[in-house]
Amino acid sequence: MNWSLFEGLLSGVNKYSTAFGRIWLSLVFIFRLLVYVVAAERVWSDDHKDFDCNTRQPGCTNVCYDHFFPVSHIRLWALQLILVTCPSLLVLMHVAYREAKAQRRRANGDDGRRVHLEPGKKRGGLWWTYLLSLVFKAAVDVGFLYIFHRLYRNYALPRVVKCELPPCPNIVDCFISRPTEKNIFTLFMVVTACVCVALSLVEAAYLVGKR
């Protein structure tokens, strides 16, 4: 995926954000997107290849891997980053609509002063769009934190898992590659997601209070 194009689109939202929104975007870019692209993808690149079980029964390793990793961390994080940043793009689209509307007014002799572009001062539909985007971003992060907790208890990966699913001949031990490194990255992504949730809620409270 072309993450640089994705980052370029979101950077346009920065000038319409509050101070909390700018901090949120910085956290997403530096501590989530950059870490994902530079390090996390490489850490999980060999998760299936190096998932080793102490049996050569055909199909046993694939079945056990699918059972303990129904969805890979890296793919869930990619989906989470896409969904959590979509509301910001919606705000950017709304701003573009308001700017086009202002241009039409100016062409008709109106100066378009009623169009508000500062989120701390805006009113009407743009204010609601920005506020709902904050709620949606917080809800997405909370939802994915719950999904990770359900799939991987306490967000931790064990060093050895025991599998007895067919076609495995009996209870076999399967070994996860680099579990300590993966646990560190998982904890880091969970903490940054929690910080982003807190920032979104604080910014929503700030907007409501300013209004």
UniProtKB/TrEMBL annotation:
Stretch forming the signal peptide: none
Family to which this protein belongs: Belongs to the connexin family.
Protein name as catalogued: Gap junction protein
Gene Ontology CC entries for this record: connexin complex
Main location: other
Transmembrane segments: 20-39, 77-97, 127-148, 184-208
Known function: One gap junction consists of a cluster of closely packed pairs of transmembrane channels, the connexons, through which materials of low MW diffuse from one cell to a neighboring cell.
Domain Connexin N-terminal: 42-75
Record domain Connexin cysteine-rich: where: 140-207
Pfam families in the cross-refs: Connexin
Compartments, as annotated in UniProt: Cell junction, Gap junction; Cell membrane
Annotated keywords: Cell junction, Cell membrane, Gap junction, Membrane, Transmembrane, Transmembrane helix
GO biological process, one term: cell-cell signaling
Any GO molecular function: gap junction channel activity
Subunit structure: A connexon is composed of a hexamer of connexins.
Membrane-related topology note: Multi-pass membrane protein
Keyword Transcription: no
Domain of life of the organism encoding this protein: Eukaryota
Lineage: Eukaryota, Metazoa, Chordata, Craniata, Vertebrata
